[in-house]
Amino acid sequence: MCVEIQKFGNATAFSVKNIPGPSFNTVKGLKEGDEKQIDKIIDFYKQKEIPVRFELTPAHTSSELLTCLSEAGFTKV
Fold first, then answer.
1. Higher pLDDT, residue 16 or 64
2. Measuring CA to CA, which residue among 15, 7, 11, 51 is closest to residue 31?
3. Residue 21 DSSP one-character state
4. Cβ(15)–Cβ(28) under 8 Å?
5. How many beta carbons lie within 10 A of that of residue 4, not counting itself?
6. What average pLDDT score do residues 7-32 get?
7. Residue among 58, 48, 5 at smallest CA distance from 27
8. Which pTM value belongs to this model?
């Protein structure tokens, strides 16, 4: 099923190429201090041709992290 799990700083990226739903293709654990990992995470999913989805918890975000995500083209849903 082409399952892959990779760490990027505090974040863990989960990908399953043959299951397109967001439940399996999600980044969990991204938090303040991981701003330099965002481009690497985006590239990880681009190489697999899978859209990236970030799950954030309010307790672990910062204005800097949210600004970096916004500048990369992500908005809240």
1. 64
2. 11
3. S
4. no
5. 13
6. 88
7. 5
8. 0.88
Torsion of CA 2, 45, 40, 5, to 10 degrees: -30
**Unique residue bearing structure tokens 């293709």:** 25
Q: What pLDDT shows up at residue 77?
A: 61
Name the CA dihedral angle for 29, 68, 38, 47, rounded to a multiple of 10 degrees.
130
CA distances from 48 to 25, 27, 35, 44, 64 (A): 11, 14, 22, 7, 27
Look up tokens 């681009």; give the residue. 46
Kindly state the tokens that stand for 67.
């600004």
Tokens of 21: 């739903």
